[in-house]
Structures are given as C-alpha cells and as structure tokens.
Write a structure and sequence with these properties.
The complex is a heterotrimer. By secondary structure, chain A is α/β, with parallel strands linked by helices. Chain A is built from 10 helices and 12 strands. By secondary structure, chain C is α/β, with parallel strands linked by helices. In chain C, helix 8 links the parallel strand 7 and strand 8. The radius of gyration of chain C is 21 Å and the shape is globular. Classes of the chains: A alpha/beta, B mainly alpha, C alpha/beta. The structure holds adenosine-5'-triphosphate, adenosine-5'-diphosphate, iron/sulfur cluster and magnesium ion (2 copies).
C-alpha cells in the first residue's frame, strides 16, 4: 500500500481584479493533481515558476485548505483521510508529514533561538514535554544535520543560507516523520553548498526511513534525488515516470522541451543535442487555455487531435509511465 | 481612469454628507448659546430671545439641519451670526489670503527641497549632504510661531526690509501679476510656514532618491553612457517622486494648522483666524461651512494625488 | 576570433562599509579576445558583478578601486575620444565624460534581473531610443525606425506595439530581450551579460541564451557571460575564468577546463553538480564549509580552509596565476 495517495486535488486562489467592479477570478494553482508515493521513496516534482509546486506541497499538508480532492495517508497500519481527519488523526498526520520550506530566511522565526525553533514541534505535538529531554533531542538532531551544540542558542540571522536550510531540515525531522515535503531545499544555497545539502538529505532518508516529495525547478537536482518524477505545467501533472525513464524516453512535448533546455555541463555535447525552443510564455493561470493547457506552445500538435478542445487525461502509456497528451 | 474619477467623486458626496452631519451634531453639542455669547454676559433676555428667533435657533434641530443643508446646496451657506452677512461673503473676503499663504508655503518648500534632496542624495556623505541633513533636522524641530516671531523681530522690525503685517488686498493676490509681486509682502509668513514643510520634503526626497539610485535600472541607465544629468533627472527623479507626491498631498491637508499659527503671528486676517474666532463666538454657520470646505479639500487633494500617481507611474495608469 | 580586446590586470576593489572593509576583489586578472564569448563563473558574492562594474566605472558607493588596470585594445578609441598617445586605453584613468562615451557605445551591459533592469516609468521604446540619440547622433525619426529594427532583431514583434509598452506589460523573457536590444543599440565591441538568465525559467533561458549567441555572431561583438551555472558555461563560452572569493583561480579554454580542471575548487564544483547524463546517483562530492566572509578573508590562498590539498604555504602565500599548458592558467601552489 502506498504511503500517500493523492487524487484529483484542487486548490484555487481567489483574486480580485478591476477597480470599480470587483471581478472574482480564480488562479487555478493546483487543478486536478493525482499521484501516489511509496514508503522510503522520493517523488520529484518539477516545473517552471508559478506552475503550482509550492501550492501542491502546502495543500497536501493542509497548510492550505484544498477545494476538492482526496488525500490518504497510510501510517501505523491505519488509513487516514487527511481532509476529513479528526483532531487526533490530524495530530498523527502532523507527526508523519513535515515540510521544509522554499525560503529558509522567512520560514524560521528570527526572534527564536535555534533550540526553540527545532524544539517547538516537539512541544506542540506533545512528543517531548520535558524541557531537558527536549534539549537532548534537539542536540541530536543538530548533530544529525551537521551542526553542533554551539549553535543551540544562536538566532537564524547568524547562519549562512546553507546552515539555515539545515535548521529547517532538523525542525522537520524533530517529530520523526515518514514523509517530508521538500520545497526547493537548495534554491537559496550556493552550488558548492548544494551538494552538501543533497548528500545530507540522502543520508537522512536512509537512516530515518523516510519518503520525500522533492520539489524543484532544477531537473538535474530532481533527477539526482528522485525515484520517480512528476512534471507539472500550469497546475497539472503532465507526465509521471521513473526518473531514468523521464530522461531516457520523455514522452510529453513539454517534458521534452524542458529536458532539451537544460544546460548540460559538458562542452563536448555542444551542438549535438537537439534543442526544442518553445514559443511564447506560460499562459496566465487565471485563464488557462482550454483543452490541453500546453497547446498554445506545443510543437507536436496534430491537426487531427482534439488538443484545443478536450483536456487529455492521464494514461498509462507504458508500465508505470503516465502521460497526459492526445498524441499517446 | 474616468470611471475611477467618477467613483471617487461619488465617494466624495457621501463623505461630505457624513462630515456635514457630524459637524452639525458636534457644533450644536458645544456648550454655550450663540445668541447669548454674542450679546455678552449682561444681554437682555428679551433681546436674546429675539436673536434666537432670527437665527432660527428656536426651531427643532432637524429643521435647522435641513435648512442649512439647503442653503449649502444653494451655495450661499447661510448667514453668519457674527457678521450678519452671508457666510459665503465672509469667507470670500478671507479665503484668498489663506490660500495664497498656504499655496506659496508649499511651493516654496517644493521648489527648494526637491533640488536640495536630489543634490544631497547625489553627493551622499559629503559636507553638502551633511549640511542638508542637518538643515532638515533643525527645520523640523523649529516651532513655527517662534520662527515667525524671530523673522518679524530681525527682518521686519530690525532691518525694516518688509512690513510686519502684509497689506495686499485679497483681490490682487490671485491676479496673474499680483500672485508674484505680492510675495514681497508675504515673504516672511511664507518662509515661516514653508520651512517646516521643506525640512520633511527634503528628507523624503533624499531618502527616496538614495533608494532609487541603487536600483538596477539606474545602473543600466549609467551603463548606457547617459550623462549623469539625464540619469538623475530622467531616470531616478520620476521614480523617487512617487512617495514625495504622497507627502506633499498630505502637507496640503496638514498645513491648515500651520496656516492658523502663521496668520496669528503675522496678524493676517485669513481663514485660520476666522475659524478660531468663529468657534469661540459660536458662529455655527461659519464653523460648519469651513469644516465642509476643508473636507472637500481633502477629497480633492486625494484625487489630485491619485491623478499625479497615474501621470508619474504607468503601473497605476495601465493596470 | 581576434586579438585581445579587453584586459584586466591585478584589479583590487574594496568596499568601505560600516561593518568593515569588504575586500571584494583581490587582484583579478584576465583578458577577453575580440569576437569571443568569455564566461566568468563563480558562486554568489565571489565578485563577478563587481569586476564588471569596475570595467564600466560604475562601482557603487562605498566601493573604491584600490589598484589595477582595465585596458581596452582598440586603435580607434584614442582617436575617437581625442586623447593622444598610443597603445591600449586604461579605462580606469578616463574622466567621467570620456567614460560616458565608452559606456553603451563600446561596452554595454545586460543586467541580471529583467524584472528590475528596465525603468518602470518609461516605455521600452523610449529606453532603447535614448541610447541611439546619445551615441549615434540620430534624430527622433531615425531613432524610431532604428528602434523598431533592433526590436525585430531580438525577435520582438510587432516592434511598434512592443516599443509602446511599459516594462510591467512585458514578460520576463520579453524584458530581457528589450535589455538585449538596448545593449546592441550603439553597436558595441563588447557586451557584458551579468547572469542574464538567472531569474528566468529554463525554457525561457534557453531561448535568451540562443539569442545572445546569435546576436554576438551577427553583430561581431565579444560577449562576457557571467554566470554561476557551469551548464551555461559549457554551452556558450569559448574561454572561461573561474572566480573564487575575489580572485580568478583558473583561466582556460572551455574544453580544457571541463576535460581537465586543475584548481581544486574547479574540480570540486564540477563534481558537486548532479549530472543526469552520467547516471550517477551516489553521494555527490561536496566542498566542505562555505564561502568566506570578505571582511576578514583567509590569509594566503582564500580557498585554503575548504581545500583538501592545503598546506603551510597555502596558508601564507597567495598563489599567482601560472600558465600550466598553453592558455591554461591556474592559481594554486599544488598544481
Ligand atoms: N496566496 C495566493 N493568492 C493568489 N494566488 C496565489 C497565491 N499563492 C500562489 N498563487 C498563485 O498560484 C500559482 C502557483 O504558485 P506556486 O507558489 O505554487 O508556484 P511554484 O510552482 O511553487 O513557483 P516557484 O517555482 O516560483 O516557487 C501562481 O500563479 C501564483 O501566483
Ligand atoms: N555596494 C556594496 N557594498 C558593500 N559590499 C559590496 C557591495 N557590492 C558588492 N559588495 C561585496 O563584494 C563582493 C562581490 O560581490 P558581487 O560582485 O556582487 O558578487 P557576484 O559574484 O555574486 O556578482 C561581495 O562580498 C559583496 O558583499
Ligand atoms: S593554493 Fe593551496 S589551498 Fe589554494 S587551492 Fe591550491 S592547494 Fe588548495
Ligand atoms: Mg514555489
Ligand atoms: Mg552578481
């Protein structure tokens, strides 16, 4: 049984436009997303800015209330319907699912010392109510993420961005989760530090037996971290497959464009790669194009397919390789 | 943009009705009977009663409320108790002076402080900048009645360069040439009023410029090889003015207090003094009229500020 | 590809801040040939932007050039600026007025963030046209038609409509194209692109990079591509300078650099990026520690606290760039 099952999840934001008559519009940030995630596995989510990755992560955790959909978390031999959970179940959900946020700068309370930042979830979720016990756990966590006792009393601004990200990770680990949602955990750190953070995450995953939902816009990083990869475009997943399959045999035109756009760190490959240059820009998520959302930029649209009218559903084209495109 | 203005004006009407009601209620809740106040302590009760009748004070409040409202709509704003003349006349005689003083106070401040703020920002941390900062610190902390007195004592009385009390006729002030030549008479009140304004505007212009100068588009403008003058006056200033416009708009409203003080110090018979005495003398029609004019000014200036924004910043204009 | 166009020698720049002196550049040196693409690569804060701002004479307050030369090799420049003598011109010695005739005209800039690099209160056409009227002495009419031509050359069509738009009405990619057309307006010899695609999505990035390379060929200019992304270096450049904490630590032909990186930092960086094509999923090689604080940088080689090879001499002596094989320079005591 999968650890997490998400089906047809939707999250719309209401935005108001116009000065006199307020028009109600909806940003369809997450619009019918389904996936499953197994124990100890990593599912990578890639997509360009604004496609709904962060919103998806927060909605799965119910930090944002979804508009519709089903989220099932299977832990401790129970199957919890997250969107319909009672208080006791919700506490279990909070213990089992954690999130590391995109911007460590703003997600760590600047007025709290590291000790309290990491200890807070332990206190709130009543895991360690005795302050001394809590301090012991926090120290262990800090050591686990490569920081030390000397950092306990310091405040977030005294750390580099890489260290701050480690603190965010330690805070997520504190409650002993089965799943961590990592939202662009390395987008704010330098290249030379990124490898440290990625290695740390891999090591922790093994020792703590956790699953990751790994969100990033960097295909290289996602490939490195993930067992499976889901590609998002304008609030929808357009393709899911094993990481190697995505790279060896991408099917969706958008995935192919994304891969071909990835600058490849070896000059010997220069000019040998076929580049697919997409026309135009990502459409406004308030008025996504009808039919297939990618059709306005698609270079493989065939006249005899209903791309402009019908929204393509997810189909399993090969074993465990799902695509939403009328060409398959 | 048009619908925007229409909307603002509609709101203005509602605001004005609200302000009228509140002023009406508050004014009539003030202790003291205007008839009695005007007759003095020993007034004959019979006469007081007659006067009350004449001013309509014996009618029910709601009748008075409607009657005043009607006279405002007709534009004559009722009769002043104290002057026994239409309020409009009373105000018409004084308003030009106050408006003249207020407008010049702000013009004086703008004309000096914006260039000063720009220069200070461009020469950050040089003696010139330090002087500008110091000036604006001092300017903000000088009480204007003190400044006015000192100017009278030193420039008008001591040096005898200008008259203590401006004597230009209100009518002349707003004629095309009079607007500038009358400044001779008004220079000290204008400086008194303008110095405090100038200090804040200088400060705001400087800090806003400093912020804008750090923007990428300024680096790019310089990298284009544009002369420094163009970089500052074309690229930086217009962006830096956005918060300054808000400040100046607010000054138009806050200036009322300053005008009252300045008129008192220089013995100018303007709206400020009229306001104060009207309240003292319980001249309700005048008080209500002035309050409404002020409220209308607020609405108008907010509209002007918004229009100026739209003019400066296309992001407001073309949303 | 021709001879030298720009040469930076021993450039030292300090920022005198309230917290102390930031020793941002510590003897930067490299040269750029005419009609080549030179990549300057390094992590945030290593001094890439400061180097380029020094070339343009635009170091912001409280920064100061303490030492160094920025030589521009162009026979016509002396004549054009009306200065006598011969040989390359040291841009750092030019008066502000003369420098204004170099900026935009001979060397132009594409800044990092397209969202902030255009002035929000003027139309894109206005911001292109002012370069034309400043440097090419054309009248309004001429400037207008030239502006449309420039917009077309960066594939912004229809040009008239784009020229009338304000920056907030354009997407990030479109804005960066407008900036690119500004940089081309006065037909410069050198375009400096400071992380031109860092804040853009990959699919947009691909198109902007393609465009810049194509324009560089078409207009026969040199291009300095500043980036922190080794992928972009590999795909775009002819020669590369690797910067670390205010110095160039390795300088080489792009193929040699990727095939045989010499400096421990370059090696570390190359190993640290996940490489999907190599199908390795094991632990990445990482560089321990983090970038040093430049107010109080390490003595000797600034990389020594993070270097595996560091020894006594590394802690004391700053290594100079040495030529190891033809055109391949490295600043390390242990190569
Ligand atoms: N609170 C909100 N109110 C309105 N719209 C929102 C809100 N939060 C996000 N959005 C919109 O929803 C869409 C998805 O946003 P989201 O932050 O999930 O994107 P993302 O994929 O994480 O992007 P990035 O890579 O930039 O982090 C965007 O169009 C965004 O503007
Ligand atoms: N205006 C400034 N004031 C103080 N320090 C600065 C300023 N600009 C840059 N620096 C410092 O100079 C160093 C190099 O910065 P920069 O060239 O912008 O790096 P990057 O390689 O990311 O472009 C950094 O340590 C930075 O802190
Ligand atoms: S000089 Fe020394 S410390 Fe610096 S890179 Fe070389 S070996 Fe490492
Ligand atoms: Mg996000
Ligand atoms: Mg930079």
């Amino acid at each position: 049984m999968a650890l997490l099952e998400v089906s047809d999840l939707r999250k719309y934001f209401v935005v108001e436009k116009g000065i006199v008559r307020k028009n109600r519009n909806y940003v369809k940030a997450v619009d019918g997303v389904s996936f499953t995630l197994d124990k100890n596995q990593t599912l990578g989510i890639v997509g360009e800015s604004g496609c709904g990755k962060t919103t998806l992560g927060k909605t799965v955790l119910r930090l944002l209330e979804p508009d519709s959909g089903v989220i099932t978390l299977n832990v401790n031999g129970r199957s919890i319907n997250v969107l319909d959970a009672d208080e006791e179940e919700m506490r279990l959900v909070r213990k089992k699912m954690q999130m590391v946020f995109q911007d460590p700068q703003s997600s760590l309370n600047p007025r709290m010392p590291v000790k309290s930042i990491i200890g807070e979830p332990l206190k709130i979720l009543k895991i360690a109510e005795d302050p001394e016990e809590r301090e012991g756990i926090v120290l262990n966590l800090l050591t686990d993420v490569g920081l030390g006792k000397e950092h306990m009393e310091r405040y977030p601004h005294e750390f580099s961005s890489g260290q701050r990200q480690r603190i965010g990770i330690a805070r997520a680990l504190a409650v002993g989760p089965d799943l961590i949602i990592l939202d662009e955990p390395t987008s704010s750190v330098d290249v030379s530090v990124q490898a440290q953070v990625l290695n740390l995450l891999k090591r922790l995953q093994e020792t703590w037996n956790m699953a990751y939902l790994f969100i990033s816009h960097d295909l290289g990083v996602v490939y490195h971290m993930s067992d499976r990869i889901a590609v998002m475009y304008l609030g929808k997943i357009v393709e899911v497959a094993d990481a190697d399959r995505i790279f060896d045999n991408p099917l969706h035109p958008y995935t192919r464009a994304l891969l071909s756009a990835l600058p490849f760190p070896d000059p010997e490959f220069r000019g040998k790669k076929k580049r697919i240059l997409l026309e135009g820009t990502v459409p406004d998520p308030i008025n996504p194009p009808p039919g297939c959302r990618f059709h306005t930029r698609c270079f493989e649209r065939k006249a005899n397919r209903p791309c402009k009218r019908e929204e393509p559903g997810m189909r399993e084209v090969e074993k465990k390789h799902l695509v939403a495109c009328h060409n398959y | 943009m048009r619908e925007y203005i229409v909307k603002k004006l509609a709101i203005a009407v509602i605001v004005l009705i609200g302000v009228y009601t509140i002023t009406f209620v508050l004014t009539f809740m003030m202790p003291g009977d205007p008839a009695r106040v005007s007759m003095g302590q020993f007034g004959n009760p019979e006469t007081v009663k007659l006067i009350r009748q004449r001013w309509g004070l014996d009618r029910p409040r709601y009748v008075q409320y409607i009657k005043y409202a009607g006279s405002f709509l007709k534009g004559e704003m009722g009769m002043s108790f104290r002057y026994d003349r239409p309020v409009l006349d009373v105000i018409k005689y004084r308003f030009p002076r106050s408006a003249y003083l207020g407008l010049w106070g702000i013009l004086f401040s703008i004309v000096l402080s914006i260039p000063l703020g720009i220069v200070a920002a461009c020469k950050q941390n040089t003696p010139l900048d330090n002087a500008a900062v110091l000036f604006s610190q001092i300017g903000r902390s000088l009480p204007s009645f003190w400044l006015g007195m000192m100017l009278i004592a030193m420039v008008a009385v001591g040096l005898g360069w200008v008259k203590v009390v401006p004597e230009v006729e209100p009518g002349r002030l707003w004629s095309f040439s009079g607007f500038f030549t009358s400044l001779d008479d008004y220079i000290l009140p204008v400086i008194t009023l303008g110095t405090g304004l100038m200090a804040t505007t200088t400060r705001m212009t400087r800090s806003s410029m400093l912020e804008v100068i750090r923007e990428d588009y300024i680096t790019l403008a310089r990298a284009k090889g544009l002369p420094e003058r163009v970089v500052i006056l074309k690229h930086a200033l217009r962006n830096a003015l956005i918060p300054v416009v808000t400040l100046i708009g607010m000054q138009f409203l806050l200036i009322v207090g300053g005008v009252i003080i300045t008129e008192t110090v220089f013995g100018i018979n303007g709206i400020g003094r009229l306001y104060v005495t009207s309240i003292q003398m319980r001249d309700y029609p005048v008080v209500i009229a002035l309050t409404l004019i002020y409220a209308f000014g607020v609405v108008l200036i907010n509209l002007l500020v918004d229009l100026t924004y739209g003019w400066i910043d296309p992001r407001v204009r073309l949303r | 590809m021709g001879g030298k166009l720009l040469e930076i020698k021993d450039l030292v720049v300090h920022f005198f801040t309230e917290d102390g002196v930031v020793k941002a550049l510590d003897g930067v040196g490299f040269h750029v040939n005419s009609e080549e693409t030179f990549a300057l690569v390094g992590e945030t804060g290593c001094g890439k932007s400061v180097t380029m701002l020094s070339v343009l004479g635009l170091i912001p307050i409280p920064g100061k050039v303490i030492n160094g030369e920025v030589l521009f090799y162009d026979e016509d420049l002396r004549h054009e600026l009306g200065i006598g003598g011969s040989g390359p011109v040291d841009l750092l010695k030019l008066s502000p007025e003369l420098m204004n005739r170099v900026r935009g005209k001979r060397i132009s800039l594409i800044t990092q963030d397209p969202m902030t690099s255009l002035n929000p209160v003027y139309t894109s056409g206005n911001q292109i046209m002012e370069v034309l009227t400043t440097h090419r002495g054309v009248d309004r009419r001429g400037a207008e038609s030239e502006t449309f031509r420039l917009l077309e050359s960066v594939a912004l069509v229809p040009p008239k409509q784009i020229a009338e738009k304000y920056p907030h009405q354009l997407s990030g990619g479109e804005r960066q194209r407008v900036v690119a057309s500004i940089s081309l307006a006065a037909s410069p010899n050198l375009i400096i692109a400071d992380e031109p695609t860092t804040n853009l999505d990959v699919t947009v990035q691909a198109r902007i990079l393609e465009l810049l390379l194509e324009l560089k060929e078409r207009f026969r200019t040199s291009l300095i591509m500043i980036t922190h992304d080794l992928g972009i270096v590999a795909e775009t450049s002819d020669r590369v300078g690797v910067m670390y904490a205010g110095s160039v630590v390795e300088l080489s032909d792009v193929f040699a650099l990727f095939k045989e990186p010499l400096h421990p930092y370059t090696k570390g960086l190359l190993e640290a990026i996940p490489n999907p094509r190599k199908r390795r999923k094991g632990p990445l090689k990482s560089i321990p520690g983090s970038v040093p604080d430049l107010i109080d940088p390490p003595e000797g080689c600034r990389f020594h606290p993070r270097c595996e090879l560091a020894s006594e001499i590394c802690r004391e002596d700053k290594p100079e760039l040495r030529e190891i094989s033809t055109g391949h320079y490295v600043a390390c005591h242990h190569v």
